[in-house]
Each structure stands twice: as C-alpha cells, then as structure tokens.
Amino acid sequence: MKIQPFKLERYFAQYEFSAPYLLSPSDCEPFTLKELLALAGPETRKLWDNLWLGYTESRGLPALREEAAALYEHITPEDLLILTPEEGIFIAMNVLLNPGDHVIATFPGYQSLYQLAESLGCSVSRWMPRMQESRVVFDVNDLENLVREDTRLLVFNFPHNPTGALPTAEEYRRILALAEDRGLYVFSDEMYRFLEYDPRDRLPSASDLYPNAVSLFGVSKSFALPGLRIGWLATRNQEVMAQLASFKDYTTICSSAPSEILALAALRAREQVLRRNLEIIGTNLNVLDNFFAQHAQTFRWARPKAGTIAFPEYLGAQGVEAFCTGLVEKKGVMLVPAGVFDYTGQNFRLGFGRRNLPEALALLEEHLGQL
Q1: pLDDT (tens digit, 9 = 90+) per residue, 158-170?
Q2: What domains, with CATH codes, occur in the chain?
Q3: 3-state secondary structure at position 122
Q4: How many other C-beta atoms can be found within 10 angstroms of the C-beta atom of residue 159?
Q5: Model confidence pLDDT, tens digit, residues 305-331
Q6: pLDDT over 80 at 134, yes or no
Q7: Parallel, antiparallel, or unpaired: how do β-strands 348-351 and 336-337 relate?
Q8: Helices and strands: H and E segment counts in the chain
Q9: What is the β-pairing status of strands 123-127 and 102-106?
Q10: Is the pLDDT of residue 2 over 90?
C-alpha cells in the first residue's frame, strides 16, 4: 500500500517536544505512573507487581476485555479486540473495504479515517459540517445526499475531532437508520466518548445499536493515558470480528503486557479518572469562553459539546498559517492550522485538556497585542 504522509503527525513531530507550550493537544492531562498506580485496587496492584513479561493473548487480556465491555450496553468481552487505536483504524479499513468501494467520512477529521480508504483504492466523499447559531452541525440531509449505489462504509467520529461537534440523539438515530436501510457498514471513532460536558448528551456506542458497526475506543483521550497505546475495536458482527483478529496477526500480534495492566487499572477507577478529566476541561472551557468573548473581532468561537478540542476560526488578515507559525516561533505556543487537516478554512485546532492552558493562553494574548 502506498500512503500519503500523515500531516498531523508530521506537524506534531516538528513541534510537540520542542515547543514549551502545546495549545493543540487532543488528550487530557496525562497521568503519571505514580498517580495511576495510586488508583489501582489490591487485585490490580498484585497483577502489576507480579507481571510476567511474556507474550500476551492476541485478543487482549481477558480481564481488560471484561472491564472494557462494561462500558457498553450489549457488547460482551468476545465482541472486543484489544489493540493500538491507530492500528484499529488500519485493520478495520483493510477488513471492511475493497478497491473501488465508495466511502463517506466526516470531514475535517483524523487523516487515517479517510486517507486509508483512499490508499486502498476507494473513493471517499467528505461529509462536511455546517455552522448553525455558533454550533457545528453535521446535517443528516447532507449525508443522505452523499450515499451512492456503491457506498459500502460510513465513517464518523463523535464526539468529533477537531470541532467538538456531537449530534443529538435524534440525529444519531437517523444516521444509523440510514446505514441500516442502505446496508452499509459503519466505522465509528468514539475516542472522546464519556467527555460530554452534559451527561445527557452522551450517545450510545454505534456497536451497541447496529450489528454492522465497528466502534473504536481506548484510553488515550477520555482516560488521559495516550502513552499506553491501548484501545479496542467493538462489534457484534462475529464474522467481521474474526477477520479483524486474523488481520492483527500481521500487525502487532498482541499488546504490551504492562500497558494492559495499567489500562485495566484506569478502567476499574473510571469514575475518579473521568471526574478528574472533566474538571480540567470544565475549568479551561470557562477560561476560553471569556477569552473569545474579549477577542470576538479576531476569532469566531464555536463552543464544542464534548471532548478536549475545538476548531475556532481566525479572522486576522495574515491568515491562519502565518498566525500559527508566528505564534510558535515567537512565543513557543503550538496551534495546529486547518491545512494540516486538509481543510481550506482559516480555522485552527485548539486543545484544552491540559492544566497549563491559562499560561499558554496568556502568551497567545501577548502575541495578539504585538501583531
């Protein structure tokens, strides 16, 4: 397979470990090992202290699959495959798609959600959002107009990266009903699930509602543990699950033993973990609301409904690319411009899941005053 460079990852490779302040990270404030182990119960701590560093089960640690299954309504441990989140996208696209298939994907988005399909020889239609009263909306009527006779797969990501958009329950029901009516497979990226600011906005997993849906989740975003590289695919379609598990034999084969135990600790302490992360997000959102209210002539703010990211629009004359370059070079604050997402608007991704956001925002404000 020949594949295009991953623009977002190349951009982060350039600045992530050199810029003093990241104002575009997609994760929550990562836990330290000491903090995470402090949350582990006696049974999990015993597993950690006596961990055997051999190969692990290719489907994933049974206790981890059992704990992950508890996050769903109808998913069992047998419906889960533990893997690296990016690996999950790669495997699912290879299993579900054939050259010549038509795919519909939410856009802008994480590049592999559409780039892999294109690299496999598929055609991809981009389901673009609309702005409705300062809210980013993926209109289901627009989706209906994109479906073709040869459409095989619908790819969506809710809560959405990079806009923070989230459909209503009724809109979500219509999306899945359309997929079922047209006989489509669904790939649902749910990496930001459980980070809804209002729990009443939380949507069920697509894999709970639709047998031909494959859902992606993991501990990188909602559980603030991206360094573990642990996620999973969930589907009730056992034929698809068997193919996913078989394909994994050609990628990682099995997961990291230490990472599985640490992920298990986080899932077993999920109430404390999620509460901590939502508190950081809520505090930072209030700061951002005030900041954008004060700079309404420079930015257009569309408040997200869930997750750790937003996609404000820069209204300055110099353009968003020059604005972001100047900010990181002069102030050491990294923002990701829209072009990194193959998007032509003057937007940038803003991440607000980390505690040092006020410091980074102060430098951004200082930069604005010097333009």
Answers
A1: 999 999 999 999 9
A2: 7-32+271-366 (3.90.1150.10), 52-268 (3.40.640.10)
A3: coil
A4: 29
A5: 999 999 999 999 999 999 999 999 999
A6: no
A7: antiparallel
A8: 14, 16
A9: parallel
A10: no
Per-residue pLDDT band for 132 (boundaries 50, 70, 90) equals confident
**What are the helix (H) ranges across the chain?**
7-15, 33-39, 42-49, 62-69, 85-96, 112-119, 140-146, 169-182, 206-209, 238-247, 257-268, 270-294, 320-331, 357-370
Tokens at 99, concatenated = 């050259």
Longest dimension (CA), the chain: 60
- What are the angstrom distances between the C-alpha of 127 and each of 28, 84, 155? 27, 26, 9
For 230, the token pair is 């642990």
**Exposed, middle or buried by CB within 10 Å (0-12, 13-18, 19+), for 66?**
middle
| 186 pLDDT tier (thresholds 50, 70, 90) | very high
Does residue 133 register a pLDDT over 80? no
Neighbours of 98 (CB within 10 A): 10
Closest CA to 23 of 299, 242, 236: 299
Phi, psi for 126 (deg, rounded to 5): -100, 120
Tokens 């990562």 belong to 30
Which pLDDT belongs to residue 334?
Answer: 97
What's the confidence (pLDDT) of residue 16? Answer: 87
Residue 141 has a CB neighbour count (10 Å cut-off) of 8
Q: Which two tokens stand for residue 333?
A: 């604050």
pLDDT of res. 300 = 96
**Buried residues in 213-250 as b, exposed as e (16+ CB within 10 A):** bbbbbbbbbbbbbbebbbbbbbbbbeebbebbbebbee
Sort strands 185-189 and 135-137 into parallel, antiparallel or unpaired.
Answer: unpaired
- CB 287, CB 358: distance < 8 Å: yes
**Residue corresponding to tokens 């559409």:** 114
- State pLDDT tens for residues 86-123: 999 999 999 999 999 999 999 999 999 999 999 999 99
